[in-house]
Input
Amino acid sequence: MVSSKLKFIVLAATVFLHTSVIAEIDWTGAPGLSESDKADIAKLAQNLSLHNPSSALERWRRPSDDRLVLVKSEVFSRGLRLAWREFYTRNSIQGSCASPCTERVGDWSIDGEVSAQERWRFSDGDWFVDVQLDTGISYAEAESIVMAVHRNALVNTPESNAPKRSFDASEISRIQTIDPINREFEFTIDQGITTWQLRVRLNGDEVQIYEGGGVSRA
Output
Protein backbone atom coordinates (compact mmCIF):
# COMPACT_ATOMS: atom_id res chain seq x y z
CA MET A 1 0.00 0.00 0.00
CA VAL A 2 2.79 2.40 0.96
CA SER A 3 4.70 1.42 -2.17
CA SER A 4 1.66 2.18 -4.36
CA LYS A 5 1.21 5.60 -2.74
CA LEU A 6 4.89 6.38 -3.23
CA LYS A 7 4.71 5.41 -6.90
CA PHE A 8 1.65 7.63 -7.33
CA ILE A 9 3.40 10.58 -5.68
CA VAL A 10 6.48 10.13 -7.85
CA LEU A 11 4.33 9.86 -10.99
CA ALA A 12 2.32 12.95 -10.04
CA ALA A 13 5.50 14.92 -9.36
CA THR A 14 6.97 13.83 -12.70
CA VAL A 15 3.83 14.86 -14.59
CA PHE A 16 3.75 18.22 -12.78
CA LEU A 17 7.42 18.86 -13.53
CA HIS A 18 6.99 17.96 -17.21
CA THR A 19 3.89 20.15 -17.52
CA SER A 20 5.82 23.02 -15.94
CA VAL A 21 8.64 22.62 -18.48
CA ILE A 22 6.16 22.78 -21.38
CA ALA A 23 4.58 25.94 -19.93
CA GLU A 24 7.95 27.67 -19.46
CA ILE A 25 8.97 27.28 -23.12
CA ASP A 26 8.06 30.11 -25.49
CA TRP A 27 6.51 28.30 -28.47
CA THR A 28 5.70 31.49 -30.43
CA GLY A 29 8.49 30.89 -32.93
CA ALA A 30 7.26 27.38 -33.73
CA PRO A 31 3.59 27.78 -34.69
CA GLY A 32 1.47 24.77 -35.52
CA LEU A 33 3.01 22.35 -33.06
CA SER A 34 0.45 20.12 -31.40
CA GLU A 35 0.34 19.64 -27.65
CA SER A 36 1.74 16.17 -28.23
CA ASP A 37 4.66 17.64 -30.23
CA LYS A 38 5.37 20.14 -27.45
CA ALA A 39 5.29 17.40 -24.82
CA ASP A 40 7.71 15.25 -26.84
CA ILE A 41 10.13 18.13 -27.44
CA ALA A 42 10.04 19.16 -23.76
CA LYS A 43 10.71 15.55 -22.73
CA LEU A 44 13.58 15.35 -25.23
CA ALA A 45 15.08 18.50 -23.69
CA GLN A 46 14.87 16.89 -20.23
CA ASN A 47 16.49 13.69 -21.52
CA LEU A 48 19.34 15.78 -22.95
CA SER A 49 19.85 17.51 -19.57
CA LEU A 50 18.68 20.84 -20.97
CA HIS A 51 16.78 21.49 -17.76
CA ASN A 52 15.82 25.12 -18.40
CA PRO A 53 14.57 25.32 -22.01
CA SER A 54 13.12 28.75 -22.71
CA SER A 55 12.25 28.92 -26.43
CA ALA A 56 11.57 26.88 -29.55
CA LEU A 57 12.09 28.27 -33.04
CA GLU A 58 11.09 26.53 -36.27
CA ARG A 59 13.96 26.82 -38.78
CA TRP A 60 12.29 25.13 -41.73
CA ARG A 61 9.30 23.01 -42.72
CA ARG A 62 9.02 20.78 -45.79
CA PRO A 63 5.79 20.00 -47.68
CA SER A 64 5.85 16.54 -46.10
CA ASP A 65 5.51 18.36 -42.73
CA ASP A 66 9.08 17.40 -41.83
CA ARG A 67 10.27 20.18 -39.50
CA LEU A 68 13.51 21.33 -37.91
CA VAL A 69 13.12 23.14 -34.58
CA LEU A 70 15.80 24.91 -32.55
CA VAL A 71 15.40 24.61 -28.77
CA LYS A 72 17.33 27.04 -26.56
CA SER A 73 17.99 27.14 -22.86
CA GLU A 74 17.67 30.23 -20.71
CA VAL A 75 20.30 32.85 -21.62
CA PHE A 76 22.81 33.70 -18.89
CA SER A 77 24.53 37.08 -19.06
CA ARG A 78 27.74 38.26 -17.45
CA GLY A 79 28.62 41.77 -18.43
CA LEU A 80 28.63 41.89 -22.25
CA ARG A 81 28.87 38.10 -22.62
CA LEU A 82 25.78 35.97 -23.22
CA ALA A 83 25.79 32.18 -22.96
CA TRP A 84 23.26 29.39 -23.42
CA ARG A 85 22.88 25.78 -24.63
CA GLU A 86 20.81 24.65 -27.58
CA PHE A 87 19.97 21.71 -29.81
CA TYR A 88 18.12 21.04 -33.06
CA THR A 89 15.33 18.51 -33.22
CA ARG A 90 13.36 17.24 -36.18
CA ASN A 91 10.30 15.08 -36.61
CA SER A 92 9.98 12.19 -39.01
CA ILE A 93 6.50 11.25 -40.08
CA GLN A 94 7.59 7.93 -41.53
CA GLY A 95 9.25 6.95 -38.24
CA SER A 96 12.81 7.10 -39.54
CA CYS A 97 15.29 8.76 -37.21
CA ALA A 98 17.52 11.73 -37.94
CA SER A 99 21.13 10.66 -38.32
CA PRO A 100 22.80 10.02 -35.99
CA CYS A 101 19.81 8.90 -33.96
CA THR A 102 21.19 9.22 -30.44
CA GLU A 103 18.03 10.36 -28.64
CA ARG A 104 14.35 10.31 -29.57
CA VAL A 105 10.95 10.94 -27.98
CA GLY A 106 7.86 10.15 -30.03
CA ASP A 107 8.34 11.49 -33.57
CA TRP A 108 11.09 13.91 -32.47
CA SER A 109 14.81 13.14 -32.48
CA ILE A 110 17.90 15.26 -31.88
CA ASP A 111 19.65 16.50 -35.01
CA GLY A 112 23.34 16.83 -34.16
CA GLU A 113 24.13 17.36 -30.48
CA VAL A 114 23.60 19.84 -27.67
CA SER A 115 25.99 22.75 -28.12
CA ALA A 116 27.19 25.60 -25.91
CA GLN A 117 26.72 29.03 -27.48
CA GLU A 118 28.36 32.36 -26.69
CA ARG A 119 27.61 35.85 -28.02
CA TRP A 120 28.94 39.31 -27.25
CA ARG A 121 26.68 42.34 -27.07
CA PHE A 122 27.43 45.60 -28.89
CA SER A 123 25.23 48.63 -28.36
CA ASP A 124 24.73 52.20 -29.46
CA GLY A 125 22.11 53.97 -27.36
CA ASP A 126 18.97 51.79 -27.39
CA TRP A 127 20.22 49.74 -30.33
CA PHE A 128 22.15 46.49 -29.82
CA VAL A 129 23.20 43.31 -31.56
CA ASP A 130 24.59 40.01 -30.21
CA VAL A 131 27.46 38.59 -32.28
CA GLN A 132 29.47 35.37 -32.25
CA LEU A 133 33.21 36.13 -32.07
CA ASP A 134 35.88 33.67 -33.14
CA THR A 135 39.29 33.50 -31.47
CA GLY A 136 41.92 36.03 -32.46
CA ILE A 137 39.74 39.14 -32.29
CA SER A 138 39.38 41.46 -29.31
CA TYR A 139 36.11 43.01 -28.20
CA ALA A 140 37.45 46.46 -29.18
CA GLU A 141 38.29 45.28 -32.72
CA ALA A 142 34.89 43.67 -33.13
CA GLU A 143 33.20 46.80 -31.81
CA SER A 144 35.01 48.92 -34.43
CA ILE A 145 33.62 46.67 -37.18
CA VAL A 146 30.07 46.53 -35.81
CA MET A 147 29.88 50.28 -35.31
CA ALA A 148 31.33 51.01 -38.77
CA VAL A 149 28.55 48.88 -40.28
CA HIS A 150 25.90 50.38 -37.99
CA ARG A 151 26.95 53.95 -38.82
CA ASN A 152 27.49 53.25 -42.52
CA ALA A 153 31.18 54.17 -42.15
CA LEU A 154 32.83 51.28 -44.02
CA VAL A 155 35.56 52.51 -46.41
CA ASN A 156 35.92 50.73 -49.76
CA THR A 157 39.53 50.18 -50.75
CA PRO A 158 40.65 50.60 -54.41
CA GLU A 159 41.03 46.84 -54.85
CA SER A 160 37.68 46.04 -53.21
CA ASN A 161 35.23 43.79 -55.04
CA ALA A 162 32.64 44.15 -52.27
CA PRO A 163 29.32 45.82 -53.13
CA LYS A 164 29.16 49.54 -52.43
CA ARG A 165 26.05 49.51 -50.31
CA SER A 166 24.99 49.79 -46.70
CA PHE A 167 24.16 46.85 -44.44
CA ASP A 168 22.00 46.48 -41.36
CA ALA A 169 24.34 45.81 -38.43
CA SER A 170 21.46 44.09 -36.62
CA GLU A 171 21.95 41.23 -39.10
CA ILE A 172 25.62 40.62 -38.22
CA SER A 173 25.80 37.10 -36.84
CA ARG A 174 29.52 36.31 -36.68
CA ILE A 175 32.99 37.82 -36.98
CA GLN A 176 35.94 35.59 -37.87
CA THR A 177 39.66 36.25 -37.88
CA ILE A 178 41.44 36.11 -41.25
CA ASP A 179 44.86 37.61 -40.43
CA PRO A 180 45.36 38.85 -36.85
CA ILE A 181 48.75 40.43 -37.67
CA ASN A 182 47.29 42.64 -40.41
CA ARG A 183 44.01 42.96 -38.46
CA GLU A 184 41.90 41.44 -41.22
CA PHE A 185 38.53 39.94 -40.37
CA GLU A 186 35.39 38.58 -42.02
CA PHE A 187 31.89 39.33 -40.80
CA THR A 188 28.71 37.51 -41.77
CA ILE A 189 25.38 39.19 -42.51
CA ASP A 190 22.33 36.92 -42.46
CA GLN A 191 19.40 38.31 -44.45
CA GLY A 192 17.13 35.29 -44.55
CA ILE A 193 17.62 33.82 -48.01
CA THR A 194 20.89 35.70 -48.59
CA THR A 195 24.10 35.45 -46.57
CA TRP A 196 26.83 38.06 -47.03
CA GLN A 197 30.45 37.38 -46.10
CA LEU A 198 32.53 40.56 -46.13
CA ARG A 199 36.20 41.01 -45.35
CA VAL A 200 37.55 44.14 -43.69
CA ARG A 201 40.89 45.51 -42.57
CA LEU A 202 41.34 47.74 -39.54
CA ASN A 203 43.68 50.58 -40.50
CA GLY A 204 43.95 53.25 -37.85
CA ASP A 205 40.47 54.65 -37.30
CA GLU A 206 39.19 53.25 -40.60
CA VAL A 207 37.39 49.96 -41.20
CA GLN A 208 38.27 49.18 -44.81
CA ILE A 209 36.21 46.67 -46.74
CA TYR A 210 38.26 44.90 -49.41
CA GLU A 211 36.41 41.72 -50.41
CA GLY A 212 33.05 40.04 -50.18
CA GLY A 213 29.76 39.04 -51.69
CA GLY A 214 26.43 37.40 -51.04
CA VAL A 215 25.16 33.86 -51.53
CA SER A 216 21.46 33.17 -52.01
CA ARG A 217 19.91 30.03 -50.53
CA ALA A 218 16.74 30.39 -52.61
Observations:
- The CA atoms of residues 99 and 111 lie 7 Å apart.
- The chain has a mean pLDDT of 85.
- The chain is about 20% helix and 45% strand.
- Helices lie at 2-24, 35-47, 139-150.
